[in-house]
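Our collaborator T.R. sent over the components below with a one-line note: 'Predict the complex.' Nothing else. No constraints on interfaces, no templates requested, no preferences about which chain binds where. So this is a plain run: every listed entity goes in together, and whatever single assembly comes back becomes the starting point for the next discussion.
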Amino acid sequence: MKSKEYILSGKLENYVFGALGAEDRLEVERMCALYPEVKKEKDSMEEALAAYVRTLSTRPPAEIKARIMAAIHQLPQEKLLSKVPSVSKGKTRSLAPVLWAASIALIFGFGVNHYLDTARKSEVELAFKEEQEKLIAQKEKYAQAVIELRDSLRYERNYADFVMDEQTNLIRLKGTENFPDASVKIFYNAGQQEYIVKSDKLPMPSADKQYQLWAIVDGKPLDLGVMDKQLVLSDRINFELKDQAQLQAFAITLEPLGGSVNPTLEAMVVIGEVKA
Amino acid sequence: MSVKVNIENLVQELQNGEEQALATIYDMYADALYGLILKIVKDDGLAQDILQDCFVKIWQKAQTYDASKGSFFTWMLNVCRNKSIDELRKVDRHRKGKDEIGHATDYQKQGIERNIDTIGLKDIVDDLPDDQKLIVEYLYFKGYTQQETSDELNIPLGTVKSRSRMAIKALKDSFVIVLLIWIQKNI
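Returned assembly:
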């Protein structure tokens, strides 16, 4: 329940756009750690934005890479204390060939520094490495793209499968007397215990109001959370009920910002009966 | 799958201080990161300096990257975005007073930048309605808060919120097409 409301709260979008302050950012990270479905939603938003940013790709001038590699060669990395053991292990490994080189250099009477320098700059080695890097990078790019593509296709297909599933019921929520034009659809699947909200026509609420979705279960209203002001199509939302047969209707009311504990009956905007 | 392991390995190598890993990461991501920086600061020379600073930062701060919080690419994007916006603000402070009014409309006139043209993705990004594009521009590329965006564009805060939601949704929808074209262009 809490995670679903959180996803609809708009905080995740802000997080992904980098428009949150430090405190809110931590809150989002906490929620992601607590609720896998919140994390999943956040990740998919980040992926979409990242894909968009990729479309802006521009090749920087070739010399930048060499400048960067030269700059970092002089710079130590900042270490985190907890990771020290694995780091020192890595260092030992990468130092071994250098030590070898150094001792060989001594044997041949070259200065150690001079030898290290020439060894590093060996042209053949460099050319080979660059070629190898390029191939690896290309392979990774390709495979990464395929995976991303597959995942997003799976996501879209999921949506379509859900709506076309035999167990999915279309519930039309029709406008009440005060809101005769309003209309909303809910696709509800009792088997998968999920629903999707599609708002066909809902007037924009005033700044201090917000729509709130309710299920009527065994004659009692059950709070399903407040809706985003301009929600057009929701994601698949989990909705578990002990006894599906007790679900009688879905309704939307217009409530003060943040929603109410109980629905305000005169503020009912749309309602639709669930037929067995 | 193997690719995932490879990227994880690469990050691991980077965190272990292997310079080769940074070189590989540069080859894989420099274009995307440079594109983002350029989009924010709109100045080649400045963007190149920022790109260099960011890679140095990626190197130095590699150990602060936490895989449980998100992808490595997104982490790098954040490093570059934050640095670019900082630099942009420094530049803007110097220029202040010159064009206080009307830079919202300036952007609208300006439309999509040349980078996209070169890749041929203009049409898809153009699919994003103008009002949503403007929200992405202000929140993500200019680094405004929602409140600042609302003040600047003179639209209600609630509208900024709903549009940023719709913009993300639209980006998700165009994701598949963007990737298809991106594969064609890059492989």
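Summary for T.R.: Chain B has two domains: 7-94, 111-186.
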